Amino acid sequence: MRCPVCGQGRIMRSWFRMHKNCPECGALIEREPGFFLGSIYFNYGLTTLIVAIAFPLLLFNGIADSQTLLFTSLAFVLIFPLLFFPLARSLWLGHDQYWDPRTDIPERLP
Question: Which InterPro entries does the protein's record reference (predicted)?
Fold first, then answer.
């Protein structure tokens, strides 16, 4: 996952932590407090979409019974958002850069 401004710097420091600024161009990654709440929409939306499609598809085709699907879906909605977390933040950052491009990017950091 790279900076949406320069396309070079890595935005994630670890799986759940982000840099404050892009290591390459110095662009501020989190514009304001609560900025990444929007990434929850990407994470929740994809999780819900996958379960909403897979559950009835598997149930009505007789591939799995309802109890198995219920527990499998529960495990999926608990684990998948954690795995998708960095990508959801990256998508939100790219979405924000597309609709509201940064114009106040500082010079390269030393």
Answer: DUF983
